[in-house]
Design the sequence.
């Protein structure tokens, strides 16, 4: 090799890499877990939840340190109230949070009852009128007025005097009952506007982050602000538990960072020592590094197509460039150890290098059609990167290889026919084929979630303290106007009530839509038209008998005579319950929320219902029955994502399989050669299926991603061995395949030590897949060819 | 008004300059109250309300177990019971079915319970934040006038008379704007005796 030409080639390569680095600088990396979800319905659902602020909600449960047993009940309450006030107000002042709820305004109950009293006729339904009817009988009135008389003479009588005069029948109880609909299954009790647990030893704050909590960078910022507020606001003896997406995102990000910090040096060191021991030449290390010079250029090209690149896709994409290392090793070993002239060696190895690159690219081209955006980005990066890496390897590796042929022309190991090997391989494939249909695709991202003992304990404690247990479904009623959304929300509530589904959180009982309000007022007017005069006489008669003066309840009848008034939503939206109502009602582009979907201009109202096998059939039908209604539930989400990803994976796997088989057929033109080349792939797939069956009986997103990579690597083993056996082009192939396999196994095998489930899965899958593909390529592929 | 004038001129009230006496008296009352864990007594309540045709006199008894159990029971002329027990309670009147309530979800009873506990706990120091207090040597008794205009709309003044020896309140007179007023008299105190828990769980007397 001409030294000048070699330096020129390296110079161009370095220039390209540096240019790539320059062009790729400032690329916007998104660390959002949502990038792992399919584009279609499920992603849309999550975006709806984001718009409602449900994904980005942080729950902070303040609690008295259990060791503080000597503190009095009053002391506990005061400590919690002070902490909640201080932490809550600090969060409310922080622009990172857009909605913080920690205390309802003082006297909110009375203010609300006063506000709603005028509009009561518009809120009460026919069911309520039936109850009033039952109160209007002589016995009912007698009981109600007797209770009023007793109440007035009880300790409660003093503040309730005017209330009893204007509401002798206790209609306000119907209002109070309605308010509980905002609480749903949460077991809170409100003391001085603060949200206390039943045992009074915990106090709840909830805040909506303005930053996406599924994004690890944003989560770090939110966490820092929360910790600052807690540090400043919590009084001595009070602890805090943070619940929601925040701790999950942080735990995952920390675990990945910790694992990579620990394992990357270990993997690098292992590979370094391995290559140094085998090649005994520092130049060999450059061979391994060449493919990665393509990474900056590939990232720069990717930037032309995507404004924002998923960090997950970028990380995996670069790992996938490692596939090209195999080509570099094959070229290096062939050039440095095979007998014959350099040009002849290169000519001989050109065919398997092109074929293996073509099959790898084929797999990634297919992945470009994935529903999952991060898969597409990863595929694009891998296609550009692998192609460039192989080109660089082809150009640069010859400048490094020092020819020391060690293998004689006759050396071609493993070409003896062996029935035993075929039987063993057949057994592996049969077992794999039996295990494959028994595997369950688990689409839940929870399988890849780093669930630390603290998160587990905090969530269990939160459920025990605040309820509710079990999954929740979110029913979103959308409308182009608030009236339309409210009307649809009423239909949702009515339907759920009709099926006796309890534990609902809805604004419908206190803020019905105009249609229902008009109907309620009409029913109210008809009801009292017939009964008002007789009721007034009867109440007067019974009242005077009990000791009241005549017309003691005149305020009630004056109110009854007045024209009922429709409740305008602005009354509640500006009232004391505004934070609670707003948490369930989202107006378009409220507080600068970016529209993440095409329906961002719509008004959304949430109803929260228990998501159980019993309620699901009813919830599922709501979408069909009521226009503008979407039902989002964990179970639906799980099943949808499972269906979508399974469909995606099946479609892509078939396409990739067909593509690879066609390519190999195109190159080898013989069924036996095709089978021999694919033998390592079949072994890898079978062993992965058996391994997953024995471990969890599940396969998840990570298995699929790594599975594709393992297929890409193992098919290369088959191709090189088949080419070698067919044309005896390079006598170093078997050694090179082993080198590639051992380097891959040692590099990725280290990841089995990772704490993070996703990295652990990555390591284990590669270990098992390549662990099976390697011996197959060495011992089975030649045997098949011999047959 | 005449009575108030009489009080102002005849009985020398303890004003700001004599806050020491008031503080010391409150301290004494609170110290006594702190020693009381359980209490039962009989009570008589006279309600003079404009919406009542005539003054209504109720008789009954009260049972209290600190920190959060209270039974307020009238036996005549009409049987009625109000029980506060932790975060819940029970209300019965006449022969009607007992009605349970949860303080977390019933804002009316929540407010009532808060008021009752403020008075019953004998936390006069806390009351001092809401009311202007005047100590009248005779009785002894204290007169409270609301600082908060919201409270003042419901209560003009509260006059509490104490037993000079036990320092237990013997009479509470609550004056409302517009002339309505209530006088509650307590007697036959039994302190720190174990109480049957059914006092606080059932309307029927044990």
Sequence:
């Amino acid at each position: 090799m001409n030294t000048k030409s070699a330096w020129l080639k390296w110079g161009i390569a370095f220039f390209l890499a540096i240019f790539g680095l320059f062009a790729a600088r400032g690329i916007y990396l998104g660390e959002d877990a949502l990038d792992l979800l399919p584009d279609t319905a499920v992603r849309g659902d999550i975006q709806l939840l984001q718009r409602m602020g449900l994904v980005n909600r942080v729950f902070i449960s303040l609690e008295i340190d259990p060791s503080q047993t000597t503190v009095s009940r009053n002391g506990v309450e005061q400590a919690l109230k002070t902490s909640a006030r201080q932490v809550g107000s600090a969060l409310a002042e922080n622009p990172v949070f857009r909605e913080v709820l920690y205390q309802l305004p003082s006297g909110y109950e009375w203010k609300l009852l006063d506000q709603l009293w005028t509009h009561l006729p518009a809120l009460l339904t026919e069911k309520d009128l039936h109850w009033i009817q039952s109160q209007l009988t002589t016995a009912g009135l007698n009981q109600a007025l007797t209770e009023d008389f007793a109440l007035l003479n009880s300790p409660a009588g003093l503040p309730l005097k005017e209330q009893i005069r204007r509401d002798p029948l206790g209609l306000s109880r119907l209002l109070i009952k309605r308010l509980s609909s905002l609480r749903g299954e949460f077991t809170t009790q409100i003391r001085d506007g603060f949200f206390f647990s039943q045992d009074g030893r915990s106090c709840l704050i909830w805040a909506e982050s303005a930053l996406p909590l599924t994004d690890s960078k944003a989560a770090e910022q939110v966490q820092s602000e929360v910790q600052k507020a807690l540090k400043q606001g919590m009084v001595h003896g009070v602890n805090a538990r943070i619940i929601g997406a925040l701790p999950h995102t942080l735990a995952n990000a920390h675990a990945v960072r910790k694992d990579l910090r620990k394992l990357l040096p270990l993997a690098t060191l292992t590979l370094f020592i391995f290559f140094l021991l085998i090649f005994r030449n520092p130049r060999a290390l450059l061979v391994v590094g060449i493919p990665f010079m393509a990474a900056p250029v590939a990232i720069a090209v990717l930037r032309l197509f995507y404004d924002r690149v998923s960090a997950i896709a970028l990380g995996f994409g670069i790992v996938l460039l490692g596939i090209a290392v195999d080509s570099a090793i094959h070229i290096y070993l062939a050039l440095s150890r095979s007998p014959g002239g350099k040009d002849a060696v290169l000519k001989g190895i050109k065919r398997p290098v092109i074929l293996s690159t073509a099959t790898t690219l084929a797999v990634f081209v297919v992945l470009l059609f994935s529903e999952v955006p991060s898969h597409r980005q990863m595929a694009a990066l891998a296609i550009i990167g692998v192609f460039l890496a192989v080109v660089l390897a082809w150009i640069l590796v010859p400048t490094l290889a020092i020819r020391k042929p060690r293998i004689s022309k006759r050396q071609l190991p493993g070409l003896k026919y062996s029935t035993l090997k075929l039987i063993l391989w057949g057994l592996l494939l049969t077992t794999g084929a039996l295990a494959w249909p028994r595997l369950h695709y688990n689409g839940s991202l929870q399988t890849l979630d780093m669930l630390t003992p603290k998160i587990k304990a905090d969530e269990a404690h939160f459920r025990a303290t605040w309820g509710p247990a079990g999954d929740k479904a979110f029913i979103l009623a959308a409308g182009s106007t608030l009236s339309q959304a409210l009307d649809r929300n009423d239909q949702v509530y009515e339907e759920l009530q009709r099926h006796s589904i309890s534990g609902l959180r809805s604004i419908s009982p206190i803020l019905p839509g105009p249609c229902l309000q008009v109907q309620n007022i009409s029913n109210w007017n008809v009801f009292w038209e017939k009964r008002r005069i007789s009721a007034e006489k009867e109440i007067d008669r019974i009242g005077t008998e009990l000791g009241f003066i005549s017309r003691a309840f005149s305020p009630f009848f004056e109110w009854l005579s007045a024209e009922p008034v429709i409740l305008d939503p602005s009354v509640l939206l500006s009232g004391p319950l505004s934070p609670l109502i707003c948490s369930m009602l989202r107006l378009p582009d409220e507080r600068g929320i970016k529209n993440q979907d095409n329906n961002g201009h719509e008004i959304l109202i949430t109803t929260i219902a228990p998501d159980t096998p019993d309620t699901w059939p009813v919830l599922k039908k709501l979408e069909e029955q009521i226009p503008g209604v979407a039902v989002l539930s964990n179970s639906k989400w799980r099943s949808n994502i499972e269906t979508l990803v399974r469909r995606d994976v099946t479609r892509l796997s078939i396409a990739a399989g067909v593509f690879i088989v066609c390519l190999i057929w195109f190159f080898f033109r013989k069924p036996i050669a095709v089978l021999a080349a694919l033998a390592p792939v079949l072994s890898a797939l079978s062993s992965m299926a058996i391994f997953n069956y024995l471990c969890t009986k599940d396969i998840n997103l990570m298995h699929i991603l790594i599975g594709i990579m393992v297929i890409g690597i193992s098919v290369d083993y088959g191709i090189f061995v088949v080419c070698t056996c067919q044309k005896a082009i390079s006598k170093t192939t078997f050694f090179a395949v082993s080198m590639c396999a051992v380097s891959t196994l040692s590099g990725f095998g280290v990841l089995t030590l990772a704490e993070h489930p996703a990295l652990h899965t990555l390591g284990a899958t590669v270990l098992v897949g390549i662990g099976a593909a390697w011996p197959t390529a060495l011992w089975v592929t030649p045997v098949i060819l011999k047959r | 008004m005449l009575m108030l004038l009489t009080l102002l001129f005849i009985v020398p009230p303890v004003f700001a300059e004599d806050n020491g006496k008031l503080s010391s008296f409150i301290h004494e009352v609170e110290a006594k109250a702190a020693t009381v864990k359980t209490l039962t007594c009989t009570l008589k309540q006279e309600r003079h309300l404009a919406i009542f045709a005539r003054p209504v006199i109720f008789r009954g008894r009260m049972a209290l177990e600190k920190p959060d159990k209270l039974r307020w029971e009238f036996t005549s002329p009409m049987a009625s019971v109000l029980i506060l027990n932790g975060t819940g309670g029970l209300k019965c009147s006449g022969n009607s079915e007992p009605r349970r309530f949860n303080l977390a979800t019933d804002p009316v009873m929540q407010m009532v319970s808060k008021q009752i506990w403020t008075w019953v706990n004998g936390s006069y120091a806390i009351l001092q934040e809401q009311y202007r207090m005047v100590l009248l040597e005779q009785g002894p008794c204290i007169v409270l006038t609301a600082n908060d205009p919201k409270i003042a709309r419901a209560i003009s003044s509260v006059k509490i008379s104490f037993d000079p020896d036990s320092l237990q309140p013997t009479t509470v007179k609550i004056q409302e704007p517009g002339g309505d007023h209530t006088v509650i008299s307590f007697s036959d105190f039994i302190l720190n005796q174990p109480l049957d828990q059914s006092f606080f769980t059932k309307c029927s007397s044990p």
Q: What stands out?
A: The longest helix of chain A spans residues 245-279. Chain A touches chain B at residues 72-74, 107, 109-110, 113, 143, 146-147, 149-161, 163, 165, 172, 176, 179-180, 183, 188-191, 196, 198, 200, 544, 547-549, 552 (CB under 8 Å). Chain A has a mean pLDDT of 83. The domain at 1-30+281-406 of chain A is CATH 1.20.1640.10 (Multidrug efflux transporter AcrB transmembrane fold).
